[in-house]
Amino acid sequence: MAAGHTTDTRTHVMGDMLMMTGTFTDGGTDVSFDGTLSTVFAAGGHVTSLYNTGVLADGEKTAGATTFTVKTVDARLHFNVGESVYASNDGDPATVFRVGVVTAILNATAVVVDSVIATVSDDAAIFKLGPNTGAVTLTDGNLSVAIDETNKYVVFGNGNLGAASTAHTQDGRWWILGLR
Fold first, then answer.
1. Class of domain 50-129
2. CATH number for region 12-48+139-179
3. In the chain, N or C terminus with fewer CB closer than 10 Å?
4. Statement: the pTM of the whole predicted model exceeds 0.70
């Protein structure tokens, strides 16, 4: 896990309770609640980053198409039925758009989606939103939340491809609810 830092911690008062919210970058963060909360009731978060699967579109797909052919990487390693697929025609994560929802995976190179929403160009980079969670994986990209009551920290961790890897770190938002 590559630990990041909080960028915008905010507090919200609700009677005797206080909610702290913020963001994390680079895979996770540790948030101290010492001096702010006496007890933490619950904490959670979610990933806001896109994950580039390394899969490329094989041929142009027009709006309304359902069979989505891909190349470079076996689609079965990254996608599951029910997941949303995103694409970037120029490979830039800033230009990603939603393609559709996977309804079937026929083989390594053919994915069926409910309906392609917008034209996907040949060689478009294919993404997933959220943590790096492949269909078959030895890595853990899930967001974990732990509360260290002794040292007064909430630890938000998000795994990646390995201890030295920074290729798939994630950004996200977090929340902590506790007693003032």
1. mainly beta
2. 2.60.40.3940
3. C
4. no
